[in-house]
Structures are given as C-alpha cells and as structure tokens.
Fold this sequence. Notes:
It contains 15 helices and 10 strands. By secondary structure, the protein is of the alpha+beta class.
Amino acid sequence: MKKTLLLLLSLTFLSGCATYQMGVSSARRQMQNGNFVQAAESLKEKAMQPTKDQLVYLLEYATALQMAGKFKESNQALLLAEDIAEIQDYTSISKEAGSLLLNEGMVQYKGDPFEKVMINAMLAINFLMMGDLDASLVETRKLNQMLYLYKKEGKRPYEQNEFAHYLAAMIWEQDRKFDDAYIDYEKAYSLNPNLPYIREDLIRVAWQSRRMEQYKKWKREFSEVKFDPKSTRSKDGELIVIFQQGWGPRKQARPENHRFPMLKPVRNRTQVAQVLVNGKPMTETLMAYDVEHASIKTLDDDYGRLVAKRAAGVVVKAVAADQIRQQNEGLGDLAWLVMNIADQADLRQWSTLPQTIQVARIPLKPGEYTVSLEGLYASEGDSTGEVMPPKTITINPRKATFVSWRSLQ
C-alpha cells in the first residue's frame, strides 16, 4: 500500500513539473528566432517515437519543417499524424482507468478534433507550395468532409471551414474549371460573406462559368464592384499570397478549476503583412480564417464532455481512496488528496498553429518578379521589423503563382 502511495506521489510531481508546454517551449523559441531546421531536429526524435505523445510532437515537427520550406518532409510527418489520429481504440482500458485516477496526460494523445481538421489544411498548403494542385484539392475536400460528418453524426457542432472552400475555389480557377470554382466560391461566401475578394470572385467566375442568372444577381447585389467581362480574356497572371500570421492560442489550466484546459490568446506584434513586388508596396493581406477564434470555440463547445469525464474520475478516485482507507484511514485520506492534486488539465496541443490565415491577390503581367513581405502592427500601421526575405517568382499567363509566409513575432 505504501508503495502504491509513493508511486502516486511521484506521478503527482511529474504531472506538475514536466508539462508538455515546457517540453516544446525551446523548439518554439528556435522557430521564433528563425532557426527552423534546428527546431525540427530538436522535435524529430520524439515525433518518431511511438509514445503516448507521438501525435502532438509530429504536428509540431511538421510545422517546423513547413517553416523551413521542407514541404515534402512536412507532409510526410502530417500524413503519419493523420494515420495515428484515425486509429480507433488507441487507448487501453488500463490507461483510461489511470487517467480517471490521475490525469488525462497519462493516455494516448488523440488530438483535439479541431487539430485533426487543421492537419488537412496544412497538407493542402504544403501541396500547393509544391505545385501539386490536385493533391491540394484532395485535402480541402477531406477537410470539409470531416467537418460535415462531425455535424451530421451529431458529435460536434462544427461549421465547415470557409478557407478550405476558398482555397479549393482558387485552385479550380487555376485549372480553368470555372463551374467547380464557382460552387466553392459560393459555398465560402455562404459561410463567411466578409471573406476578402469574394464579391469580385463571385461576379468574375459566374461570368466565366456562364452562370448568367447568378452573374446578374451578384452584379445587382454588389453594385460597387467594377467588372469588365473583357478582362477575363486578359493574359495576365496572378500572385496569391498565403500568410500564416502569428501564434495561435496556448492551453493553460482554467483558473477556476485546474482539472480543465482553456485556450489563452497569444499577443502577436505582426497583425498583417504588406506585399512588396520589385520593392514596391502593392497591397496588404486580408484575413481569410480566424484560427484562434475557431480553436477556442471548439474547445469551449467540448467543455461539457470534459466535465462529464472528470466527474466520472472523481467517483473512481473516491472508490480507490475508500479501499485504501479500509486498510489505513490516514493513507486513504492522503491518497484522496494526492489523486486530486495530480488531476491536472491536459495541456498537450498543436501549439505552433497560426493565429489567422490571411491572403492577398495581385494581378501581374507575365514575367519574373521579386516578392517580399513585411510585417505590420495593424492595417496601414508601422513595420514590426519582421520580413520575408525577397524571392524570385515567375508569373505565367492566366495562371496563379502561390507564395506562403509565416510570421512569428
């Protein structure tokens, strides 16, 4: 009995001191300093070990690789993470019972449902940067299918992701499949009428897909949009910037109850990015998806399930303490105290997701250009000093060239 209690005390100490957030803080600092390859290397060993924390380390590792421009390697890690997340009955009965006695950190991390959705979003961006439009489309479809099933089966009240539809629409448009592009633009608009560029997109692609009734409807509704059908015959190309802005929220224990996690926003200096082409400021990025808001909302929506599970844990603890108390009342009381102190919130999460995903679209004549991005405190604000180094791109006739950048300040 005393050995059991000593074990409980040891686990209490470990659960209080060796949190996941502390374990990845060094890698995050390396990323913030621009040392993406070193950050990936520091995460690789844990990402490849089949432990209870493998999934979450894989997600952090994949993000570091993406920041380093190693899109293929990032996708390999994300695809492995996707496979692990899909495995059913991953947690053994004994470990599940252990989590009820002590804390959620004892069991296999399966990933928050929101994180599983973001796996496909990051895969889509990586494939896009690799020039594989078809594979990117597959990921956007998988993402929205997952959200549809969550909602249909009544497991989670998540709405579909407007950014996934918007990304798919842009890709369809590059493939000149205008009818498919229109369907996704229209769906994106129905989910978020305030998406940047969406009014111009609906009018332009309705015309290109020969959906004349919809074209007339949008022209009436968006009378401020100036559109000349002749412009669709232009041989101009387009620069599309995908800007992942800042750090997403971090998990911490709720101040009113240490058993449950909450997501606290991280303060980021860089709020938008200014796009420069050949050194000339062209436009600023606009928000296409609020990752912070969506992640906080989905965790809050899941709060009822977490409360029910921890309530069951309180019952299990009471039974275990009572069994010890029958042998030794003092040890039983101490066991009850130790188990409740050890019952801490599980703070594991995909902590390297961005705060928002933003886009910028700039029509350009075919040719070579130098593109750079500069972080700003706010729209039309001062520079934060954070910049994407200039890169040379080629704009082809009637095609889009995609550029991706992540800010971390």
